[in-house]
Write a structure and sequence with these properties.
Blueprint lengths: L3 E9 L3 E6 L2 E6 L2 H5 L7 E11 L2 E7 L2 H10 L7 H10 L2 H9 L3 H4 L7 H11 L20 H19 L4 H15 L5 H13 L2
Parallel strand pairs: 3-5
Antiparallel strand pairs: 1-2, 1-4, 2-3, 4-5
Helix pairs in contact: 2-3, 4-8, 7-8, 7-9, 8-9
Length: 206
Amino acid sequence: MIAKLTGILDSVGDDWVIVDVNGVGYICHASSRTLSSMPARGEAAQLHVETVVREDAITLYGFAEVAERNMFRLLTSVQGVGAKVGLAILSTLAPNELQNAIAAQDKTAVARAKGVGPKVAQRIVHELKDKVTGLVFQPKGVQMAMGAAAPKAANSAIEDAISALVNLGYKPVEAHGAVAKAAGQLGEGADVGALVPAALKELSSL
């Protein structure tokens, strides 16, 4: 089972990349997000890999980040969601954006991906809502390019807000969903004092 490839970038296509590892070229299907992050041809490249073995084929799916690979695994665990659809969703939504959408039960965001209809989007957010509980969500607009301090501070506020709602008696999945919606609305820089009331408002409207 191949879990990671480290070698030289050989070539990149519309939905695939070939990495040369000691003279052996491995073709991996990938999202547009991963493909756009690849270095120039002939330079060092690394991919986290999900190996799918079937009776008639062994297929590799490559990801620039572990988080993207993990979300791909979750997506393809949903009935009716194959690898092609999983990659389409990850080409449209970054891993943290997808986590937010699932926690907030935002099927419209998931349905923006090519080939994903409303029924499939609804199934994804419904079946995965409990599985993303415990993941740290980031409000839209928080980018790692801003440095480690900003995401860390945002995550701390979100975690504290979720904890506050759980202490008030709400279920973890309800707390995560409400805080994810509140964080998406309030955006970067929202503190606990703003997140908790906004999340409670979301919960009261259910």
